[in-house]
Amino acid sequence: MDIRHLHYFLQVAHHKSFTKAAQSLYITQPTISKMIKSIEEELGVVLFNRSGKQVELTDAGQVIFAQAQDIVHSFQHLSVELDDLIHLKKGRITIGLPPMIGSSFFPRVLGKFREQYPDIVIQLVEDGAKKVEEHVEKGLLDIGVVLSPANEALFHSFSLVEEKLMLLVHPSHRLAEQEKVKLSELHQEFFVFFRKDFALHDRVIAECVRAGFQPQVVYESSQWDFISEMVAANLGIALLPEPICRELDRNRIRVLPLVDPVIPWHLVMIWRKDRYLSFAAREWLRFTQDLFG
Questions:
Q1: In angstroms, what CA-CA distances link 197 with 160, 194, 225?
Q2: Of 71, 12, 72, 14, the residue nearest 40 (C-alpha)
Q3: Which keywords, in A-to-Z order, does the entry hold (predicted)?
Q4: How far apart are CA 227 and CA 175, in angstroms?
Q5: Lowest-confidence region among 38-42, 97-101, 112-116, 203-207
Q6: Which pLDDT tens digit goes with each residue over 173-187?
Q7: Is the pTM of this model over 0.70?
Q8: From the CB of residue 111, how many other CB atoms can be counted at a distance below 10 Å?
Q9: CA distance to 1, 146, 266, per residue, from 6 (Å)
């Protein structure tokens, strides 16, 4: 017995006639009679009293009728829900991203996506790139934004942004008037860093070590605006991504190009290779990939 059998049964019960039910379903009367007979044989009960001009439900038929209504209604609701998902009328996506992205270009991307898909809910989880990658791997997030390179064995990915880190110093700093600064010139400075669970933390330390020194970290934070305020208070220097630096008050902070080496800030969007992605998540990936080229 399948959902079609129950639908035919309900039509006979509603019309109290095999003939009228068959007409409403655009099938022959023998076909629907055979269908009801097969249900009765499968369940071992008689569903209709066929002795009068109108067929009437038996006591067993009334029990089946109550359950069949709920089952058919639930199936129809399921079909509508699935149709909505497939045609992207609704859905939910969980996306992990580092806090520094939230106030730069990402809101504009979200705004454009929402214009096209107003009923798709996007849950944003802000965390360091290391945590984001870990949570995508574990299936706690559908999609994540992390620093390149991503683990190619686990993730599909595509590029979002390719920029670089800039140096932030107080206007009174000895390097404030230089046109550019070599990383090796910062060997005696006090750094304000992102926390250890941020990929930038390890990336900057590794570059400093390659330049011949271990950076002196005096403060760590998860928020770029707090880091920039620490620099504005002359409590240390910092390295932040170029898009964030464009939003800073240049009267309170000097932003200088960092060279030798240039430290790239390359963001990629990742998702697991071996996990199912919802229709909404797949459309988000298509949308953002088209947007970022």
A1: 21, 8, 18
A2: 12
A3: DNA-binding, Transcription, Transcription regulation
A4: 18
A5: 97-101
A6: 999 999 999 999 999
A7: no
A8: 9
A9: 8, 51, 57
Do 129 and 271 lie in one domain? The reply is: yes
Structurally, the chain folds into a number of domains equal to: 3
Distance of CA 47 to the CA centre of its chain: 49
- For every residue of the chain, DSSP letters joined together read --HHHHHHHHHHHHHT-HHHHHHHHTS-HHHHHHHHHHHHHHHTS--EE-SSSS-EE-HHHHHHHHHHHHHHHHHHHHHHHHHHHHTTSSEEEEEEE-HHHHTTTHHHHHHHHHHH-TTEEEEEEE--HHHHHHHHHHTS-SEEEEESPP-TTTEEEEEEEEEEEEEEE-TTSTTTT-S-EEGGGGTTPEEEEE-TTSHHHHHHHHHHHHTT---EEEEEES-HHHHHHHHHTTS-BEEEEHHHHTTS-TTT-EEEEEESS--EEEEEEEEETTS---HHHHHHHHHHHHHH-
10 Å CB burial of residue 222 (0-12, 13-18, 19+) is middle
- Do 144 and 21 belong to one domain? no
Q: Kindly state whether residues 187 and 147 are assigned to the same domain.
A: no
Q: Are residues 155 and 277 in the same domain?
A: yes
Distances 138 to 19, 99, 132, 229, 280 between C-alpha atoms, Å:
57, 20, 10, 35, 20
For residue 82, which amino acid is it?
L
Please give the Cα distance from 104 to 290 (Å, whole number). 19
Residue ranges making up the domain that contains 171: 163-265
Q: pLDDT tens across 228-238, in order? A: 999 999 999 99
Q: Token pair for residue 244?
A: 């964030």
